[in-house]
Amino acid sequence: MGATLRVYKRRIRSVTATKKITKAMEMIAASRVVKAQRQVAASTPYASELTRAVTAVATGSTTQHALTTEAENPTRAALLLLTSDRGLAGGYSSNVIKAAEQLTERLKAEGKEVDVYIVGRKGVSYYGFRDRKVTDSWTGFTDSPTYADAKAIAAPLIEAVQRDTAEGGVDELHIVYTEFLSMMTQTALDDRLLPLSLAKTAEAEEDTSKGEILPLFDFEPSAEDVLDALLPRYVESRIYNALLQAAASKHAATRRAMKSATDNAEELIKSLSRLANAARQAEITQEISEIVGGSAALADATAGSD
Fold first, then answer.
1. Pairing between strand 136-138 and 113-119?
2. What is the pLDDT of residues 47-84, one digit of tens each?
3. Are 103 and 188 contacting, i.e. CB atoms less than 8 angstroms apart?
4. Are residues 34 and 252 in contact, defined by beta-carbon separation less than 8 angstroms?
5. pTM, full prediction
6. Which of 120, 234, 250, 292 is paired with 72 by a 20 to 30 Å CA distance?
């Protein structure tokens, strides 16, 4: 076997092994995204209804609460960025990081300082490589987040919102994550969680468009106590839903990337097989030519001796 043919066969074996790995990863991601879809579907109604409840409290009372009152001159904002712990998901992490960069530039253009909180090793690595300050970070659970993870993330964010900006607090809370729309479509977006004064607008408009009217409530012992109890749950539920959306989006992106890699491996194997067949045919042709040439030379030598 010629050297060229051996090279092609070695490359075919290597690509075939890679194809088996990418195919297995595609199947694993496909099974995980189904579970993640179910979790998103289960958590979304709770988050939506809790948002409606907090909106009702905020609109149905005149209480000035730190988590619902718009600052007169906001100077500092917190940004929570949800990325992935692992790669092999196409442009998933880079897209959400790009959205976070755009939001950061917009907030800075408004004269606000930005405190960055990051979930996922990809985001931590991105900011660390560029030597940018990160207020806090969490890693190790992005593929399968739990409500306990959301509570751990929400606690320092709520504390920052409740503190005065002179003491390191923030006036606003923004979250940047990837929204799961379908197996083929995931969109990086930013959402303002707090203060609720602006975050509730879209919810109220949606209710109005459906002909629904937010009910009036009597608050006991007081609207402020109700807000103290509801708003942390509101932040936790929204963060948890965003974590689940991000996890489902990541698995869908991994499945799509691994399917593309598997298809590319198949095409490469076909191409290498054609080249190997051509090299084999060239070797056979050369051998036949050498045999014919040798036979002709032997016949000429025999005729000369006669």
1. parallel
2. 888 877 777 776 666 666 666 777 778 889 999 999 99
3. no
4. no
5. 0.80
6. 234
